[in-house]
Amino acid sequence: MKASENIKKLILRYKTIRMEISPGKYKHVFFDLDNTLWDFNTNSEEAFRDLFEKYHLSERGVTSFEAFIEVYNKHNHLLWDFYRRGEIVKEMLNIRRFSLTLSDFGINDSLLSSNIANDYVSLSPTKTNLFPHTLAVLEYLAGKYSLHIITNGFEEVQYRKLNHSGLSLFFDQVITSEDAGVKKPDLPIFLYALQKAGALAEESLMIGDDEEIDITGAFNAGIDQVLVDYNNVCPESRATYRVSGLEKLYEIL
């Protein structure tokens, strides 16, 4: 029997006795996915290196892989801000971030931009790098709480990440911004997540890496929060709890 099947059976057995062994305040734990559990930066860089070689970008005028990533990140961050505000659709975000990046290197090729965009969306979710202690912590928590995901990522991409990395075994509900029709940190996505999970705000906990998107959003919904501050960038967080890594969750839960 595969290890993943053993884990799934163990989780199901634990869930049948959860209420007996976990009478504390929290019953539902909601996780952000990217940059909290799934190592977005490492996985994205691996995918980009594959595509940089596949499309021979250095021969087309891109000065270096590092320069390509720097320019891409600039455009991607700006376009994601537009997307979160509902000013562009995901199809425009996906292709435009690559066409703008290539244009900065003097490459104006709409077909190349489209091909790279499509390949990136297909390839990046198959990468499986997780933050340290992710699987061990989830195995521990799954025996005590109902676990769920709240994510702003594209629905088909986020499900592929969960499946390829083995994370889907642990979560009862996966709430995406596409499914909810609204993005974090807006209040309705948290209310929608509570409804789907059959949870009350006062018995729930949100765990994420972003002070504004995860922590403030959950706070406004009346949900306690854990900021996973891997790089110590938010020492003055308003979060109920602040931790330096996932292993610190053992001390809270």
How is the secondary structure organized here?
Elements: H1 3-16, H2 18-21, E1 28-31, H3 40-54, H4 65-84, H5 90-104, H6 110-123, H7 134-142, E2 146-151, H8 155-165, E3 173-176, H9 177-180, H10 187-197, E4 204-208, H11 211-220, E5 224-228, E6 241-243, H12 249-252
Parallel strand pairs: 1-2, 1-4, 2-3, 4-5, 5-6
Q: What does this molecule look like?
A:
Helix 3 packs across helix 6 and helix 5 packs across helix 6. Strand 2, helix 8 and strand 3 form a beta-alpha-beta unit. The protein is built from twelve helices and six strands. 52% of the residues lie in helices and 11% in strands. With 253 residues, it is an alpha/beta fold.
Considering the chains and any ligands shown, give keywords for the structure:
253 residues; alpha/beta; six-stranded parallel β-sheet; 6 strands; 52% helix
Outline of the structure:
This protein has 253 residues and is an alpha/beta fold. The chain has helices at 3-16, 18-21, 40-54, 65-84, 90-104, 110-123, 134-142, 155-165, 177-180, 187-197, 211-220, 249-252, and strands spanning 28-31, 146-151, 173-176, 204-208, 224-228, 241-243. The chain has a 6-stranded parallel beta sheet with strand order 3-2-1-4-5-6, sandwiched between helices.
Major sheet: size, sense and barrel closure?
6 strands, parallel
Mean pLDDT: 92
Oligomer: single chain
Structural class: alpha/beta
Poorly predicted runs are 16-22
What is the strand arrangement across the widest sheet? 3-2-1-4-5-6
Number of strands: 6
What overall form do the CA principal axes indicate? elongated
* Helical residue percent band: 40-55%
Tell me the fraction of residues in β-strands, as a range.
5-15%
Task: Provide the gyration radius in Å.
Answer: 19 Å
Q: What's the SSE pattern?
A: HHEHHHHHEHEHHEHEEH
**End-to-end separation:** 30 Å
Give me the number of helical elements: 12
